[in-house]
Write a structure and sequence with these properties.
By secondary structure, the chain is of the alpha+beta class. The protein has five helices and five strands, in the order E-E-H-H-H-E-H-E-H-E. The protein has one domain (2-154): 2-C-methyl-D-erythritol 2,4-cyclodiphosphate synthase (60s Ribosomal Protein L30, Chain: A). It has helices at residues 40-53, 58-61, 75-87, 110-121, 136-139; strands at residues 2-21, 24-32, 90-100, 125-130, 143-154. The chain has a five-stranded mixed beta sheet with strand order 2-1-5-3-4. Helix 1 (40-53) runs parallel beside helix 3 (75-87).
Length: 155
């Protein structure tokens, strides 16, 4: 059985925080606000994987009010989602991620980010980035949005 899930995440920029995106540190870029490290790519991937398996979303996996997850690396949330998937008899086939925002300039580190996320997920992860031609909150440079689609199969 093959199943598809979609995840979406949005975070405002936080100039005082370091940027962690797609499991990588981005020195010199504004960070993303959030209870954890704010890695919107990881958050959207978690939602895509869980929704594909019918296992809910990141809010049901880790609480935003939980002191143990404050400042936590979101790569750990992806690992936890993968454990839940495996326990339910599913495994990822691939994940496609679209980042929407003006910053960071993603192309220079796309290959590195794809390798890191693919290793984390245990399946190919493709990453693309786009802007909104100065429209909306992402176009005004207030934050970024991420959309992820996961394909999983029953094992």
């Amino acid at each position: 059985m093959i199943r598809v899930g979609t995840g979406f995440d949005v975070h405002a920029y936080d100039e005082a925080a370091p940027l962690r995106l797609a499991g990588l540190d981005w020195p010199g870029e504004p960070g993303l606000s959030g209870h954890s490290d704010g890695d919107a790519v990881c958050h959207a991937v978690v939602d895509a994987l869980l929704s594909a398996a019918g296992l809910g979303d990141i809010g049901g996996l880790v609480g935003v009010d939980d002191p143990e997850t404050e400042g936590a690396a979101s790569t750990g949330f992806v690992r936890l989602a993968l454990e839940r998937l495996a326990a339910a008899g599913f495994a990822p086939v691939n994940v496609s991620v679209q980042i929407v925002g003006n910053r960071p300039r993603f192309a220079a580190r796309r290959d590195e980010a794809q390798r890191a996320m693919s290793e984390l997920v245990g399946a190919p992860v493709s990453l693309a980035a786009t802007t909104t031609d100065h429209l909306g909150f992402t176009g005004r440079g207030e934050g970024l949005a991420v959309i992820a689609t996961a394909l999983i199969e029953q094992r």
